[in-house]
Design goal:
Blueprint: H1 27-30, E1 40-44, H2 87-94, H3 112-121, H4 136-139, H5 146-161, H6 166-175, E2 177-181, H7 184-191, H8 194-199, H9 202-222, E3 227-231, H10 240-243, H11 253-277, E4 282-286, H12 288-297, E5 306-310, E6 312-313, E7 328-329, E8 336-338, H13 347-358, E9 365-366, H14 370-375
Parallel strand pairs: 1-2, 2-3, 3-4, 5-8
Antiparallel strand pairs: 4-9, 6-7
Helix pairs in contact: 3-5, 5-9, 9-11
Family: Belongs to the 'GDSL' lipolytic enzyme family.
Signal peptide: 1-23
Protein name: GDSL esterase/lipase At5g55050-like
Length: 376
Amino acid sequence: MTTNITPSITIFLIFLGLLRIDSFPGLETATGTAASVPAVYVLGDSLVDAGNNNYLAISISKANYPHNGVDFPGSIATGRFCNGKNAADAIAEKFGLPLPPPYLSLKGIFKEEERKAAALSGVNFASGGAGIFNGSDQQFRQSIPLSYQVNNWLSIHKEFTSQLDPSEAQIHLSKSLFFVVIGSNDIFDYFGSFKLRQKTNPQQYTQSMADKLKEQLKRLHDTGARRFLIVGVAQIGCTPGQRAKNSMHECDEEANTWGSLYNEALVKMLQQLKEELGSSMTYSYFDNFNSLHDIVTNPARYGFADVKSACCGRGELNAQLPCSLVSNLCSDRTKYLFWDLYGHPTEAAARTIVDLMLSDDAQYSSPLTLTQLVSS
C-alpha cells in the first residue's frame, strides 16, 4: 500500500484479528520451532514493505515520515506503512530471527558484511504499491513489481550460495520461509483502467493474476525455495477509505467481490502447483478474506474498539487524507484495526494475524497452518 491516494498504486489488503496470544493453544510449541526456520524472505507490497521504497528516487509511495513509525523502536519512520512493526517483522521475531532488512538498503560497496549476514537470516524485497504484473507503478517508478523482486532475490541467492557449500545451501533453502503478500494493487489497476476492462473480464483478469504469480513462485522454487506462506486478498472494500465514500460507511461489495474472485483462482493455482511439484513444495494459504469478515461482523469478540476508522488521518473516519505529521493520531493504537485510510493494519493487528497463522486452529489456513508448515 502506498500513501498516494491514486487507487492504482494503493493496496487494500488487510491483516486482521486481535486475539490474545494465550488464546491460541499450541503457540508455545510453535515459537519453539525457531531452529527449523533459518531465514525469512519476504516478497510483496506495502503490507510487508520494510522500507525499500525509501530508495526509489522519484517514488512518492513512501512512508518514511511521521506519524508512521510512532511505535517503532526509537519512534523512527522506517518506511513501514504502520505505526510500528508489520507482519513480516512479527513472523521473523516468532522464529528468533532479526528483522529482514530492505533489500535496497543492502546495496553498495560498504554494505558487503551486512548483506552477507542478511542473506543467511532473511531479506525483505517487498515494495509499497507493487503488483504481480509490471503495471503502471513500475512504469512511473513508484514501486518494485513482483518479477523484479524475484530478480533481486536471485542476487541474494548468489550471495549466500557463495558462503555455503552446495549441500548446506540446499538445506538452508529447504527450511527457509518464503512469505508472499501481493495482489490487491493489480485488482485496483484493473478497476481503474477502462482499457484493461475492455480487453478482459474480471474472471479472466484474476485468473491471469494467479497464473503470473505461479510463474514467479516457480522461479523461486527453481532456486531451491520449498516452504511458502501465501496470503490471499482481504475484503478490500472494507477499508476506511472505501467506507468513507458512502454516507452509511458500508463496505464496497463490488471491490470485495473482485478480491474473492482472485482468491478462488489463487487457491486453485496453488493446488495445481503443488500437484506439479509434489513433495518438493509445501505451502500454507492464509484466508485473509474470511478473517476480515469475521472480525468486522463481531469486533468486540476480537478486542477491537474501532473497525471502521483509521487511527491516523483526518476528516470523516480519519479517511479523507493520508497519515502524516499533521494528521489526527488515535491515542490507543491497540484498539484500532486500521492504521490509515488505505487499510494498512496497526502493529497490534499485524501481530495478531501472525498468531492466527501459527494457531492450531486451521479455520483460516490450508492445507497447513504456519506451525505445520515450518515443522514439515
